[in-house]
Amino acid sequence: MTTRFTIFLHLAGVVLLGSVAFPTGVFALTFTPERFVTEVSPGVPQTEELTLLNETGEFVSVVLEPVDLDTSMAAEGRATFLLNTAGSLAPSWISVSPDQFVLGPGESRSVDVTLSAPVTSTGSLYAGIATTFRPVRSDELGGVSLVSVTGPLIFATVNTQDAVRDGSLTELATRGGSTWFSHLPVSFEVSFANKGNVILQPVVTIEVRDMFGRLTERIDLNEDQYIVLPHTSRNITQSWDTKLSEERISGIGRELALPLVGPFTVTATVSYDESVSDSAQITLWFFPWRLALLAGVLLIGIVGVRRRLRRV
Questions:
Q1: CA quadruple 245, 251, 254, 255: dihedral sign
Q2: Cβ-Cβ contacts under 8 Å for 278 (sequence gap 6 or more)
Q3: Spatial distance between the Cα atoms of 79 and 152, rounded to a whole number of angstroms
Q4: In which band, very low, low, confident or very high, does the pLDDT at 87 lie, cut at 50, 70 and 90?
Q5: Residues 228, 234, 240, 245: what is their CA dihedral angle, to the nearest 10 degrees?
Q6: Can you give the pTM of this predicted structure?
Q7: What is the CA radius of gyration of the chain?
Q8: What is the number of H-type helices and E-type strands within the chain?
Q9: Which of 57-71, 83-97, 113-127, 292-306 has the lowest mean pLDDT?
């Protein structure tokens, strides 16, 4: 039977869904790095270092196992550990030493992760290191109980003449598809397709210019934050003015905070190589109707008061 655990393909961390919750006051097992993005040569072993830190507050027994990934949800930035799978490819090209040990509270340990790409391999290889950690309790006489499974990801590009690096920006839109707004924030969605056979790490830049061509906003997404697997697409979301999105204020409050009027041109540029880039452009229209309505009411009130004063 195949067991699945879902994780997110982000540099910021590996988040596990489906794990058993820790007791109160217990944290986690952390990894440095949280993912490997590297290049390998067919038939040439390559060793990387992985460091584990026990933040659970108790002794834990750790078991590391290379596993394949289910990447059917790669567009959302998710992958799934495939555990207990017969015929798994990952154990044939990844080895971990040591792969079993005990860590005390606050203790760290480094292990060697050896990547041995098969001689016939091309394109890209990717897998995970499923790490099971269990609390060791003295009252169990060395017995252990399953707590959680997590672990780092491995993305390796195979250095061969058959490597094809080809990607394109397929869509730039706002979340929901609207082009009319009264205030910020506005969320952009950028879709990038990897048409080649190796892993790509697109760098996304979004520029917003007003009707006079002046730069209003520039959004640079962190380099190497996103990974796009071969023959898949990745949806990247970014907000214009994240500060306003975090504040709980009304629509008219947001219009007052930063009133915007007229057309704004949004250009997204995606580069995945030093000399390769692609771009797309959309036009957004802003009109702070709440602010305009309030101004209209105030103007009518002022005119009405002045007329009454003239009559008097």
A1: positive
A2: 167, 168, 169, 269, 270, 271
A3: 11
A4: low
A5: -110
A6: 0.78
A7: 26
A8: 4, 20
A9: 83-97
CA 184: distance to chain centroid? Answer: 23
DSSP string for 264-297: EEEEEEEEEETTEEEEEEEEEEE--HHHHHHHHH
By the 8 A CB rule, do 10 and 77 touch? Answer: yes
Q: What is the rounded CA–CA span in Å between residue 102 and residue 96?
A: 15
Going by C-beta distance under 8 Å and a sequence separation of 6 or more, which residues neighbour residue 268? 169, 172, 188, 190, 204, 205, 206, 279, 280, 281
Alpha carbon distance 171, 188 (integer Å):
10
List the one residue out of 13, 15, 127 whose CA is nearest residue 71. 127
DSSP letter (8 states) at residue 221: P
Distance (Å, rounded) from C-alpha 89 to C-alpha 156? 14
115: nearest Cα among 153, 77, 82: 153
Query: Which of 249, 260, 248 is CA-nearest to residue 210?
Result: 260
Write out the two tokens for 128: 């995970």
* Helix or strand run (H / E) with residue 217: strand 215-220
Helices (H), 3-154: 90-93
Residue 246 burial (10 A CB sphere; 0-12, 13-18, 19+): exposed
- What is the separation, in whole angstroms, between the first and last Cα of the chain? 90
Tell me if residue 147 falls in helix, strand or coil.
coil
Question: What domains are there in the chain, each with its CATH number?
Answer: 3-158 (2.60.40.10), 167-289 (2.60.40.10)
* DSSP-assigned letter for residue 22: P
Beta bridge partners of 15: none
Residue 12, strand partner residues? none
Q: Summarize the confidence of residues 162-174 as an average pLDDT.
A: 94
